[in-house]
Amino acid sequence: MGAPRWPDLGVLELLTAVGSTGSLGAAARQVGMAQPNASRALRGLERDLGLSLVHRSPRGSRLTTHGLLVVEWAAAVLEPALRFGLACDSLRSHARGRLGVAASRTIAEYAVPQWLSTLREESPEVQVMLHVMNSAEVCDAVQEGTSDLGFIEAPRAPRGLRSTVVGRDRLLVVVAPAHPWARRRRPLTAAELAQTPLVLREPGSGTRETLEARLAPLELAPPALELGSNDSIRISVASGAGATVLSELAVRQALAAGTLVEVPVADLDLERRFRAVWSGPAAVRGPASDLVRIARATVTA
């Protein structure tokens, strides 16, 4: 004997509505089904069960004895199905109100707070969970599904992720005022920069990846120091640890205060793009779409 066929819940709902309204047309309207489709569905159910369920006449439709029994039994199926549907609706609503965001450290420190403040003003019901990591880790989090949306400074998004540019940034070479480069009369060259041990972010950071990509095919000297945050690098360089390359966003205040000095580079373009990354559909949706729109409108170099 083959496995029993699962009943179509929509047809059971229709049959129940026929019993309560006494009309196939009214029952079809109640469940949101066109009447010809409703007639075909009921005939299909009768055929599958091998039973006559509805007596049709010019005065309307009424359930047969078998139909009444089937409707009574159907209640035990439809009620938990309704609860299941309501629970799924609640879950979807809850999911639409939650947004997991992963952001590279530079973007998280200098741009994301403003973006999230604007998002909260527009959509106070959205709960955002922000994770701060380097650009490579952001891409991993989005690919693994632990974050819905990511923001990176890497030159490009890895294969398998969707991306869109949300803004532009510029990397600057900076040193302490007492550093010899601070008194240079000629701009630095890319070759000089590549040959100099620098204070750098860790491998996998967008800042490090951008610098290495722009200096290729020159071989970058081993770093003087590797540090995991913009703040630690900025403090170390201002204290005389050497030269570094950081986002203009990260050093703007230090340049204005005179604790760091920018060193021009003659033959090196250090402009880069901030990208939003996500997986799945081509177009980002829901609160993630709102945050991308806000980022585009507010990010500045």
Automatic annotation (TrEMBL):
<dbReference type="Pfam" id="PF00126">
    <property type="entry name" value="HTH_1"/>
</dbReference>
<comment type="similarity">
    <text>Belongs to the LysR transcriptional regulatory family.</text>
</comment>
<dbReference type="InterPro" id="IPR000847">
    <property type="entry name" value="LysR_HTH_N"/>
</dbReference>
<protein>
    <submittedName>
        <fullName>LysR family transcriptional regulator</fullName>
    </submittedName>
</protein>
<dbReference type="InterPro" id="IPR036388">
    <property type="entry name" value="WH-like_DNA-bd_sf"/>
</dbReference>
<keyword id="KW-0238">DNA-binding</keyword>
<keyword id="KW-0804">Transcription</keyword>
<feature type="domain" description="HTH lysR-type">
    <location>
        <begin position="7"/>
        <end position="64"/>
    </location>
</feature>
<dbReference type="InterPro" id="IPR005119">
    <property type="entry name" value="LysR_subst-bd"/>
</dbReference>
<dbReference type="Pfam" id="PF03466">
    <property type="entry name" value="LysR_substrate"/>
</dbReference>
<dbReference type="GO" id="GO:0003700">
    <property type="term" value="F:DNA-binding transcription factor activity"/>
</dbReference>
<dbReference type="InterPro" id="IPR036390">
    <property type="entry name" value="WH_DNA-bd_sf"/>
</dbReference>
<dbReference type="GO" id="GO:0000976">
    <property type="term" value="F:transcription cis-regulatory region binding"/>
</dbReference>
<keyword id="KW-0805">Transcription regulation</keyword>
